[in-house]
Amino acid sequence: DAGVIQSPRHEVTEMGQEVTLRCKPISGHDYLFWYRQTMMRGLELLIYFNNNVPIDDSGMPEDRFSAKMPNASFSTLKIQPSEPRDSAVYFCASRTGYGPGELFFGEGSRLTVL
Amino acid sequence: QQPVQSPQAVILREGEDAVINCSSSKALYSVHWYRQKHGEAPVFLMILLKGGEQKGHDKISASFNEKKQQSSLYLTASQLSYSGTYFCGTEAGGYQKVTFGTGTKLQVIP
Questions:
Q1: CB-based contact A68:A76 (threshold 8 Å)
Q2: Which of A105, B2, B69, B108 sits 20 to 30 Å CA-CA off A47?
Q3: DSSP β-ladder status, B18-23 and B4-6
Q4: What residues of chain B, 65 to 94, have a C-beta less than 8 Å from chain A?
């Protein structure tokens, strides 16, 4: 089975540009999480969805960040406008809805904002 | 709120043991442990549920003391392949979101 798929793997953009990161969770997984990883702050939870509905977006840094999950097989994380401090690796992860269980991470999207 | 991990970094020689600690200010339902190699995604090691559970995975084991809201990861007879950053992830208030600590960088040298 395919794992969690993220795209793009690498993105270099200039400050002020819009960035869209994409994620396809594992089929049948009810939960989807977006994390941001930096050296200083480790793995930060940005937002998570259950059955395509956003449950907790308290980790989203500011209004420049938005996330959607239009269906069970696709989610996007958008940054508009991007800033250099947004440079990080963004991970998407999914899990089943049956009790506690492991998170399956995608390979991550490395974002560099110049 | 992120759980707190200690130490932040540790260097071991092959065959030595290490303990990584994770503590939270919240009542926990579960604790996850993951290992991340440089440039790769975190990989699941184990999950511990409330109830004072202990688990083992080869020579890596962990304990969970729910009263103290703490978990510890034990690596015995370390191997070069154990090198990486270890993250604990905690679930509070039900089995939903997993919040990670800042990680412990472990390096095993020959």
A1: yes
A2: B69
A3: antiparallel
A4: 87, 89, 91
**pLDDT digits 0-9 by tens, B70-91:** 999 999 999 999 999 999 999 8
Residue B75's DSSP bridge partners are B18, B60
Q: What is the pLDDT of residues B6-34, one digit of tens each?
A: 999 999 999 999 999 999 988 888 899 99
Q: Which residue has the tokens 């969690």?
A: A4
In sequence order, which residues have a C-beta less than 8 Å from that of residue A36 and are 6 or more positions away? A43, A44, A46, A88, A89, A90, A91
Chain B residue with minimal CA distance to A43?
B100
Residue B23 pairs with which residues in a beta bridge? B4, B70
Residues of A in contact with B93 (CB under 8 A): none
Q: Is the sign of the CA dihedral B105, B84, A46, A28 positive or negative? A: negative
Find the length of chain B: 110
**Neighbouring residues of A25: CB distance < 8 A, sequence distance ≥ 6:** A4, A32, A72, A73, A75, A92, A94
Q: Check CB contact under 8 Å for B41 and A56.
A: no
**Two structure tokens written together for B4:** 């707190």
Residue of B nearest to A101 (CA): B47
What is the per-residue pLDDT for B99? 92
- The sign of the torsion formed by the CA atoms of B38, B5, B8, B83 equals negative
